[in-house]
């Protein structure tokens, strides 16, 4: 029978530490195949994403829509599903809630990168952008890194206050900050997850900072000022999530950087020559995340393993 998981059941099947482990295992698996995703523009400025992936056991397709101005109208920006099939029989195994998978696997990718790359993973943490991804990253970094203190910046004070209240409900020290640039000086962990329609950060992160930049996932989107990205390239270490970032990493592309020359998270996990050549002993680490159907395949693996238990 097909398991049909709603948002709550999907979240319960994807605890952040276990999901980060599943992501790392996927990056070590040579049977994984992920073709380019299809992005179909929609009337009104939205997009339809069709994202397939497969390994030796499973095949998945994520079908989601992204409409950036939906939250202003009381609707979620991301809607859709992840459909999971048995790769040998073709039988449908599960349908997962697409927005929940997207939120949790994106935060878990940042968690995996922080595990590997953050000079000071204990924080404090600065979250810039208090929407779905802000909440997911807060929960992921608290569960997976043991972060105990967080500052939240958002263009919406009400959204920032709501995320601060959620953090306090998790037992964290939390406060709203109105100047994200100034807060960079206090926080060695930074997550930027804004709508990425305009530059949101113009100051330089700390020399011991780890930045997970997740908001800009098309060439036209941007969160970080180009001169900051160029400074980070000159003084620190830049890593992208996958090679798809070569044509999607808006922050880095708009800074004129050669994204194709940067190591990927798979290079880090596998300790490849590309990673050994690129890494610096000191300086900030900037991790650019754009999304990839492989992350959804890892989430499907994690969810089915949870169901089997």
UniProtKB/TrEMBL annotation:
Recorded E.C. number(s)?
1.5.1.49
Q: Which domain of life is it from?
A: Bacteria
Looking up InterPro entries in the UniProt record yields: NAD(P)-bd_dom_sf, ODC_Mu_crystall, ODC_N
* Major enzyme class: oxidoreductase
Q: Known SUPFAM superfamilies for this protein?
A: NAD(P)-binding Rossmann-fold domains
Keywords from UniProt, A to Z, are: Oxidoreductase
Q: What is this protein called?
A: Delta(1)-pyrroline-2-carboxylate reductase 1
Please give the organism. Answer: Tepidimonas sediminis
Give the gene symbol. Answer: ocd
